[in-house]
Every structure is written in C-alpha cells, then in structure tokens.
Design goal:
The chain has 16 helices and 9 strands. A 9-stranded mixed sheet has the order 4-3-5-2-6-1-7-8-9, sandwiched between helices. Strand 8, helix 7 and strand 9 form a beta-alpha-beta unit.
Length: about 625
C-alpha cells in the first residue's frame, strides 16, 4: 500500500496547488479507505456445522465456544492485535422518535478472553438477552497481520432463523464468504439456496467441508457436493478440512499433518484469493479516484495552456467549454433528468419490493394453511413454528437480495446520465449492519391443546347419549311395554355417546386449526409491517446516498469546466509580456499532473489514453 499512499500524496499536492478543495475531499476519502486494510471474511453455515471450530483452528486459539450443546448466538469478530483481548460491543438503544436527537453510541466492554463463551454462546446468553451487537477478539497471528478479519456468525438455520436475515444483510459489505458444511451429509436445499443468494451479494465465495476426520465417507460426500455446485452453476471451490487435525498439527509442529488436514489449501485461499484480491480492488479504487481528479485538473490546465499558446484559436475552444459548462449546469438542477430517474426509480423499486415480499409471504401463508388442514396443529406446533420461522426468514433474505440487485441496477441507470460508457464511479450502497427487522416481530402465538380428563370425557358422552336413551326408551316403552332404560336404549345411548365424543374431538381440532390459521395471518402481517418499514428505510438511505454522490459529481464537473472557461479567458487576454512566463508555468503544471496520472495508470494497470480538451 505504500506506493498508493505516495500516489495520493502527489495527487493531493497538485490538487492543492490548483485550489480545488472539493477534489481534495475526494482524495482524503480515498486515503481513509486505504488506511483501513481490514478484509472481512464471513464464516457462515447452518447450526452445528463446525464454523466456530474452523475459526479456532485458523487462528490456533479457542476464541469461539465449541461444544455439542453450545451454539453461537452473537457474531464474533477475530482480528489482528499486538496482545490478546476480548471486547463486547453492546447494541445501541432504539433510535429516538425525534430525528434531531442523536443516537447513543454503542457501548464497549472489555472482558477476559477466557470468559468470552459466557457472553456469545446460546448457553450463557440465550437468545442474545444481553443485546450484544458482536464480540471483538484480537490476537497476534501472522495470518491476520495483513488485515484479514474472520467473523464467526450464528447458524443460519436451527436456532432462530432471524440470524439468516441478519447474515444476509451483512454479505454485501463482506470481502469474502466461507460457507461451512460438515461431511455427515451432502448439501441440503436450504444450504444451496443460501449459497445462491450469497453469490449474488458477494463475488468471493468458497465452500468448506468440515469434520472429515469423523466421517470415513467424506470423499463421496465431497463429490456429491461438487455435483450439486455444478448443477447450480456455482463456480466455487470446495475445500475439505479437519479442524481437529489442524489443531493437533499446530501443537506438534507437524507440517505434513497440517497439509493433510486441508488447512494448507484454505490458508492459501485466504492469503492469495481473498487478501490478495482485496489489495487489487483497493489499488484499482485508489487509482480510479486519482485518475478522476487528474482529469478534472488537466481540463483546466490544458485549457489555460492552449489559450496561451494560441490566443487566436482560443475562441472556439472557449465556446465549446461554455457549452459543456451549460450542459453540466443542467445536471445541478433539481429538475435534472438524473434526479427524475432516481426519484421514479426509487418509487418503482419501493412498490416492486413490497409486492415481492407480499407475494412470497402469501405463498408461505397458503402452504402453512394447507399444512394446518392436514393435521392437528396443537400436536405438531413446535415443528410447525420452526418451519414457519425458517420459511419466513428465507423469504425475507431472498427479498433483500433481489432489492439489493435492483438498487445496484438503478445506480447504474442514474450513472449513465453522467457517462454514457458506464464508467462513472458508483457509491457503496450498503452502510452499517442489518436493522434486524425480524427481531421486532413477536413470536408466533402458540395454539394450546386443552386437556380433556376422564370426567369431562364421560360428561361429553353422557350429554350425547341422553337423547338416544330417552328417544329409543320411549319407542320400546310404547311398542313393547319395556322400561325406558333397557338394553336396547342403553346400547343406542353408548353408540350416540361415542359419536358425540368423536364429534366434540373433531370440533376441537377444527377450532385449533382456525386459531392456528388466524395466528399465522397475524404473524405474517406483522412481518410485512416490520420488514416493509425496514425496506423503506433502506431505500430512503440509498436514495440519499445516490443523490449526494451524483450531486457532488455534478458539482465537481461544473467547477472544473467553470475553472477551464475562466483560466482560458484570462490566458487569451494576457499581454505579450506575461505570455512567455505563463506558458512555461502552465506547461510545468500540466507536466506535473500528467506525471501523477501516468503513475496512477501504471499502478492501476489501466489502458486509457489521457483525457484532452473537448474539441
């Protein structure tokens, strides 16, 4: 990163000399990005697949809780540090109703490293009752020294599936994803669905097959998994590993066992394909900003130099610059086409996202009602509740992925108003973590099964049998002179009493089914309300980001053209006595800027010709 820092320093010097504080702000933003070398890798997967043990094996330290009966309930972020430490980051309180009231910052609490499992596990912190946003762990490890940050996430299935939606919301801001699945069985449908969504949000995804030391048939499972990946069109790596062998190899310093564990391949992937790729992206992003800044500076510098060298021919050049300035001035107005495209696009996107979410949840509601009609919901409520929560979380995650793709498409549509070749810089559309809208949704109301004791059963049967005994007793009394209570009337009473009990049992089941359907509809309505509000908030934030970004772009371009017009006019009206000295100074300024631009081209491996003055 040192050559990039030096490039930014040189670009800042020429920008300061040109008196462009707006472009200096852009270079300062690039410098801040460059100073943050963190490369975030999300370790995701279903419940109890070996994610925490994988992280522990990578850093050779028990930083994440591992136990057959303990599951992760809070994300754990593992990064490089000079000394081992653990910090709990508490979620800030709910946002105040008054928009002008600042939100309280997150609270950070340092804890002993060995006590971390008590705070981040489901056993010590069930359901994240302590409202932790995440836990931070720092370790002096060479693997992490280049900025690699490992994030151990809660399971996307099993435990409350709201974790899946939160993990999905974090994917666009991640540099890479490791999808973890153990060798007990081949990929399940939810895993393949999550992989498809992850690949659409994060371009750098790899699969890890864990626990190969426990399952002798892991090679067959690996081949089946590769077949599923090929069938899904997922061109990702699958790396079988054994965390147990890796930890034993680290203790015994056995390099051969380390390679046999599969972690050699995984470490090389993280070092070369993840950290190395992130470095390439940082270089391209930095050089892109420098090239954009130098293009703005060269526009004004070359206009001045051209007017000084050829005062007679400068009139046509100035007219072209004025026309370009007027066209750029249109972009600054509220009625500009890009503003209309952005406003209409956000309105359409909001309607489409709401429709997509409602359509997905309507299908789930129909499936739930069909499932309720086939069984007594009171008897299978626990399984039904888990199924419904997972299906809703999956639908919300799919809706989020689709919304993110549409937002990116809208950003490109707006960008085309500034550059028809589509090479305009686009802002980062994802800021912060998920608002965890599903956490605000109350649990599905439980349908209780009322207990019917022997006495109540007898009373139900007695009420049903009373009419039968009386009716048939009267018939036998009139016809045969028998008493009202006789073997025939008692037999009919038993039959009708049994039928009354069965009918009452069916009625109770029907009542529970009706209550279950009503509970499902209320639950889905609340999901639509909470997630819909979250989606609208995201869209408004995205609209503000795009509006501010492209407004700044229009201001920069207008300022550059305005400076070009002003300097060209001043140069054209300069006297002969000052012309020779100003020509030399202008040539030197252009040469300095072109040197910076050439250095950016070399570092960024661009193949672009220098930008000249508009014809």
């Amino acid at each position: 990163m040192e050559p990039l820092a030096d490039l930014l320093d040189r670009a800042a010097d020429v920008t300061a000399d040109a008196g462009r504080p707006d472009l200096l702000a852009r270079l300062d933003a690039a410098r801040r990005r460059l100073r943050d070398p963190h490369v975030r890798v999300l370790v995701v997967g279903e419940f109890k697949q070996g994610k925490s043990q994988l992280v522990n094996a990578l850093v050779n330290a028990p930083v994440c809780p591992v136990d057959d009966d303990v599951a992760t309930s809070v994300p754990t972020v593992v990064a490089h540090g000079e000394t081992p430490s653990a910090t709990l980051v508490l979620a800030p309180p709910d946002a105040p109703e008054d928009p002008g009231t600042p939100t309280a910052p997150a609270t950070r609490v340092e804890v002993p490293l060995e006590s971390l499992p008590e705070h981040v596990s489901e056993l010590g912190n069930p359901g994240n009752a302590r409202r932790l946003a995440y836990a931070e762990v720092t370790l002096p490890r060479r693997l992490l020294a280049d900025g690699l940050v490992l994030v151990d996430t809660p399971g996307v299935g099993g435990l409350g599936s709201t974790h899946a939606a939160n993990t999905m919301a974090a994917l666009p801001s991640a540099d890479a994803v490791l999808l973890v699945s153990d060798a007990a069985q081949e990929y399940s449908e939810p895993e393949l669905e999550f992989l498809d969504q992850a690949m659409r949000l994060c371009p750098n995804v790899a699969c890890v097959l864990t626990k190969i030391d426990l399952y002798p048939h892991w090679r067959q499972v690996a081949e089946l998994d590769r077949g599923h990946l090929a069938a899904a069109g997922a061109r990702v790596r699958l790396m079988p590993v054994s965390s147990t062998l890796r930890l034993h190899a680290a203790r015994t310093k056995d390099a051969e066992l380390h390679e046999e564990s599969g972690f050699g391949d995984l470490v090389r992937h993280l070092r070369d394909d993840v950290v190395g790729h992130a470095g390439t992206l940082a270089r391209r992003s930095t050089t892109h900003d420098v090239l954009a800044v130098t293009d703005h500076l060269l526009m004004s510098a070359r206009a001045e130099l051209g007017a000084l060298q050829d005062p007679a021919g400068s009139t046509a050049m100035i007219e072209d610059l004025v026309a370009a300035r007027e066209a750029t001035g249109e972009l600054r107005r509220r009625s500009a086409r890009w503003q209309q495209t952005l406003g209409d696009g956000v309105a359409d996107l909001a309607a489409d996202i709401d429709y997509d979410l409602r359509d997905r949840l309507r299908k789930i509601t129909r499936e739930a009602e069909e499932a309720i009609d086939t069984a007594d919901p009171g008897m299978v409520w626990e399984d039904f509740d888990d199924w419904l929560v997972q299906r809703i979380a999956s639908a919300v995650a799919a809706n989020f992925v689709w919304a993110h793709e549409r937002a990116q498409w809208l950003a490109k549509q707006v960008g085309e108003h500034f550059d028809r070749q589509g090479d305009v810089a686009l802002p980062e559309l994802v800021h912060g973590d998920s608002q965890e809208a599903l956490d605000l949704v109350a649990r599905l109301e439980r349908v209780e099964v009322e207990r019917v004791g022997p006495t109540q059963k007898a009373l139900i049967a007695l009420r049903g049998s009373y009419g039968g005994i009386l009716m048939f007793g009267m018939v036998t009394l009139v016809a045969f002179g028998m008493s009202i209570i006789n073997p025939f009337s008692v037999g009919i009473g038993v039959i009708m009493g049994g039928k009354a009990y069965r009918d009452d049992k069916k009625a109770r089941v029907k009542r529970r089914q009706a209550e279950a359907k009503a509970a499902v509809r209320r639950h889905v309505d609340e999901v639509v309300f909470q997630v819909g509000k979250d989606s609208k908030d995201r869209l408004r934030a995205m609209q503000r980001v795009l509006r501010d970004h492209f407004t700044t772009t229009a201001e920069e371009l207008y300022r550059s053209l305005d400076d070009s017009v002003r300097t060209a006019r001043e140069a054209a009206s300069a006297g002969e006595a000052d012309r020779s000295g100003r020509v030399a100074a202008a040539r030197a300024a252009v040469a300095r800027i072109e040197d910076v631009r050439a250095a950016a081209l070399r570092l960024g491996e661009h193949r672009v010709e220098p930008v000249g003055v508009p014809a």
